[in-house]
């Protein structure tokens, strides 16, 4: 989600001195090392790979096959057609008394070989089936005969009761697109934003590239695609994230919010106790691979590789490049409160602490009156500093305060107990939500450990949030974990009538361990400079959260349109009315249909979208004409989205070609031009993946309101959006206050979304839904279901807040 900024900024890191040294490695050696890294990852998970590698068969199927062979031998039948006899002859002769043992061993070896061959056949067949993407290209609601046949075969070969990594061996590898097709699609994507003169110049560079360099660079990518697990993902992680020298705050992290209208308890320690317990329950299920793999259409599995590094993971700074450190296990969390650091154990002997015990530990920290040591309060600002600076300071810190540093970096995750409240307020809903988003994205610059895979933030009024570092995985992975956490801590664990966690405190628990930092004098100045830079960066970010409640996903579907394409096309209209021009638009989509796939870019500013926007601004155009152009723009976006998901996108291929050119020290003006472009509009949809965990129809307030990220360009916008149930769309918009080209988001203007809604309503015969009664200021407080709902719904609480009106919010 936040990758757009890094995708724009990766190129300078390649031209640094450090980049030149690293890229001096021969490209064949780098391809070899990429494959070696893939194989090392596979070997490190050998046991889990064995359990899931035999899927869709099971270890018991070998016993069944062996028993069947033994039964056939007892009946004097030879299912091996003489092979078992040859195997028996090749075994050592242990004497006559062991003749029967040799026969059993021969049968076992034959059964093992046959079993392995059958499993290999199933894997190959399933991989071939999963390489079919025709279903993506079919219109919604229509299914061709080949797709129906494909679905039936996938159902047959997929087996039953898959574990999280069961499909990994059967996933196809991401294909390398045709370089001619990629260049053609690229030129088509930039046509709406370039003048005729600039486009002709770019097209000339493209033709020169196709003639002189494309075939050589493409050959290396084809070679890598056969050898490594994925031809682009490891380079994407390396050069876009780990080699970036910018601050992680705002540039690489993103945030996720709590329930928008509901706070289950105002007791800060209780909310922290339930949330931490729920997160560790998720980790337990992850370790046991009890999390079901994500299936599109209920049948097509997505890659699960990114789940491995959710917990016990830290991005360690380096002078020239960072690296990701992942531990197999961690039995504590690191906690920050009022400038002090604590180590809180999460297990007692071999058991996970109860939510009430965790609440007790967090309350002890909140009640601890001891002050922060000099410079300790602002120590975490170093994690928001440029990576080279933090790497140099960390060397001194590791020498002087190794135990404390290890406690933080080796924690399961980071917890920040903030001293200020956050969340939606009735008095000033717009400003309160904006401040909530800003607190999650940047905080005060010194109260988050930005290196951790994620930080759980618990505010003084019980509101929650996540700050997530981006390099280890993409938003759908952390989003899946967050949905489980919110549903579990609120619906399953619940709270007592007084707002505390259920259960009883444990007086025998040892006190949380206060971490002591022996900070050498030479890093005091570094902390002060890092804090100043972090506050400057934090103060420059303008955040706005906009719950759009005039209509939602349900209305868009009634118009027979894709909800995501609807929003993307409307954002083009909103941006044009703001800036008076078109710009390159970055929308991230996943490529997890392939092994170790991450993301691809959908270039949403198309000629069709441009024509629609111009028609909307032309008073002579009729509603029918505008609607026709709107549908063309939506259909074009859907085609681009499906192509990107199926590995036929533009940007990752061009990125990989650029990396190869740098390894080969080949200068390509075309590739230089491609990677000098600015994405003034970076967008992302946050998917709701586990709707079964929430009762959206009866309790629409109990849904996460999504999250956001910083802008990709100093003069652009970052926009994320989430469909909350059927009738609300929550937008998260960010920009930089220093820009003279962007509007201040706290002063909303007219909504282009509303304009498009009116157009569709009039032209298609639908009426735009009015605000539901619960959105009125005087609406009654939401009354959730009773605690006797057996964990199937929200717990009753006097802490629920009624919805606040937001018709004045705007995304422009």
UniProtKB/TrEMBL annotation:
SUPFAM superfamilies: CoA-dependent acyltransferases (SSF52777). Its main location: membrane. GO terms for biological process: fatty acid beta-oxidation; regulation of postsynaptic membrane neurotransmitter receptor levels. The keyword Methyltransferase does not apply. Residues 1-47 form the Carnitine O-palmitoyltransferase N-terminal domain. Residues 798-812 have a biased composition (Polar residues). Residues 784-797 have a biased composition (Low complexity). It is found in: Membrane. It is a multi-pass membrane protein. Residues 766-812 are annotated as: Disordered. Keywords: Acyltransferase, Fatty acid metabolism, Lipid metabolism, Membrane, Transferase, Transmembrane, Transmembrane helix. It comes from the Eukaryota. GO terms for cellular component: AMPA glutamate receptor complex; axon; dendrite; endoplasmic reticulum membrane; glutamatergic synapse; postsynapse. Signal peptide: none annotated. The active site is at 470 (proton acceptor). GO terms for molecular function: acyltransferase activity; palmitoyl-(protein) hydrolase activity. Gene3D superfamilies: 6.10.250.1760, Chloramphenicol acetyltransferase-like domain (3.30.559.10), Choline/Carnitine o-acyltransferase, domain 2 (3.30.559.70). The chain crosses the membrane at residues 104-126. Residues 175-743 form the Choline/carnitine acyltransferase domain. Belongs to the carnitine/choline acetyltransferase family. This is Carnitine palmitoyltransferase 1C. It comes from Bos taurus.
């Amino acid at each position: 989600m936040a990758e757009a900024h890094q995708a724009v900024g990766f190129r300078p890191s390649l031209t640094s001195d450090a980049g030149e040294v690293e890229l001096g490695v021969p490209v064949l050696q780098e391809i070899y090392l990429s494959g070696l890294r893939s194989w090392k990852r596979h070997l490190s998970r050998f046991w889990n790979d064995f359990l899931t590698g035999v899927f869709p068969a099971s270890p018991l199927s070998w016993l069944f096959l062996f028993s069947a062979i033994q039964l056939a031998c007892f009946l004097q039948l030879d299912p091996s057609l003489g092979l078992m006899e040859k195997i028996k002859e090749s075994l050592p002769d242990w004497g006559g008394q062991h003749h029967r043992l040799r026969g059993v061993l021969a049968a076992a070896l034959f059964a093992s070989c046959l079993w392995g061959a059958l499993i290999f056949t199933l894997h190959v067949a399933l991989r071939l089936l999963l390489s079919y993407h025709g279903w993506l290209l079919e219109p919604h609601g229509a299914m061709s005969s080949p797709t129906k046949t494909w679905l039936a075969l996938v159902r047959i070969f997929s087996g039953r009761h898959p574990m999280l990594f069961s499909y990994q061996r059967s996933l196809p590898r991401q294909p390398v697109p045709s370089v001619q097709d990629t260049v053609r699609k690229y030129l088509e994507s930039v046509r709406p934003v370039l003048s005729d003169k600039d486009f002709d110049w770019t097209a000339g560079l493209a033709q020169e590239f196709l003639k002189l360099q494309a075939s050589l660079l493409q050959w290396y990518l084809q070679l890598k695609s056969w050898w490594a697990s994925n031809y682009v993902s490891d380079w994407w992680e390396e050069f876009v994230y780990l080699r970036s020298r910018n601050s992680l705050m705002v540039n690489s992290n993103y945030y996720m919010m709590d329930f928008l209208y509901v706070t289950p308890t105002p007791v800060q320690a209780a909310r922290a106790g339930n949330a931490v317990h729920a997160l560790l329950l998720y980790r337990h299920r992850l370790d046991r691979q009890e999390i079901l793999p994500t299936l599109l259409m209920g049948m097509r599995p997505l890659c699960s590789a990114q789940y491995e590094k959710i917990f016990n993971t830290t991005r360690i700074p380096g002078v020239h490049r960072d690296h990701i450190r992942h531990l197999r296990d961690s039995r504590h969390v690191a906690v920050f409160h009022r400038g002090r650091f604590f180590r809180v154990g999460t297990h007692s002997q071999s058991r996970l602490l109860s939510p009430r015990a965790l609440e007790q530990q967090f309350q002890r920290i909140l009640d601890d009156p001891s002050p922060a040591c000099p410079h300790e309060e602002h120590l975490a600002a170093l994690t928001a500093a440029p990576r080279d600076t933090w790497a140099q300071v960390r060397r001194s810190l590791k020498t002087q305060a190794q135990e404390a540093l290890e406690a933080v970096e080796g924690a399961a995750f980071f917890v920040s107990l903030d001293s200020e409240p956050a969340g939606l307020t009735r008095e000033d809903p717009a400003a309160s939500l904006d401040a909530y988003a800003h607190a999650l994205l940047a905080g005060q610059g010194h109260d988050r450990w930005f290196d951790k895979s994620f930080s759980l933030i618990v505010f003084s009024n019980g509101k929650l949030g996540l700050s997530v570092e981006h390099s280890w995985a993409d938003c759908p992975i952390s989003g899946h974990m967050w949905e489980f956490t919110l549903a579990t801590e609120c619906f399953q664990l619940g709270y007592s009538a007084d707002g505390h966690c259920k259960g009883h405190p444990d007086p025998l628990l040892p006190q949380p361990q206060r971490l002591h930092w022996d900070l050498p004098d030479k890093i005091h100045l570094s902390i002060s400079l890092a804090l100043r830079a972090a506050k400057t960066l934090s103060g420059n970010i303008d955040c706005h959260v906009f719950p759009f409640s005039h209509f939602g996903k349900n209305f868009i579907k009634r118009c027979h349109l894709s909800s995501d394409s609807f929003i993307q096309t409307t954002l083009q209209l909103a941006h044009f009315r703001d800036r008076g021009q078109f710009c390159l638009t970055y929308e991230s989509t996943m490529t997890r249909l392939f092994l170790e796939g991450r993301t691809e870019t959908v270039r949403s500013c198309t000629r069709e979208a441009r024509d629609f926007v111009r028609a909307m601004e032309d008073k002579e155009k009729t509603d029918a004409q505008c609607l026709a152009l709107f549908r063309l723009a939506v259909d074009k976006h859907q085609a681009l989205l499906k192509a990107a998901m199926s590995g036929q996108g533009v940007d990752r291929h061009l990125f990989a070609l650029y990396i190869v050119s740098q390894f080969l020290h080949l200068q390509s003006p075309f590739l230089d031009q491609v990677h000098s472009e600015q994405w003034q509009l970076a967008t992302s949809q946050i998917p709701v993946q586990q709707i079964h965990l929430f009762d959206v129809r009866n309790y629409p307030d109990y849904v996460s309101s999504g999250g956001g990220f910083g802008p990709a360009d100093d003069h652009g916008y970052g926009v994320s959006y989430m469909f909350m149930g059927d009738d609300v769309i929550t937008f998260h918009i960010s920009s930089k206050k220093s820009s003279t080209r962007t509007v201040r988001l706290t002063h909303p203007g007219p909504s282009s979304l509303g304009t498009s809604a009116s157009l569709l309503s009039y032209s298609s015969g639908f009426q735009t839904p009015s605000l539901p009664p619960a959105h009125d200021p005087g609406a009654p407080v939401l009354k959730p279901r009773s605690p006797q709902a057996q964990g199937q719904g929200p717990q009753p609480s006097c802490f629920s807040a009624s919805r606040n009106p937001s018709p004045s919010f705007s995304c422009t």
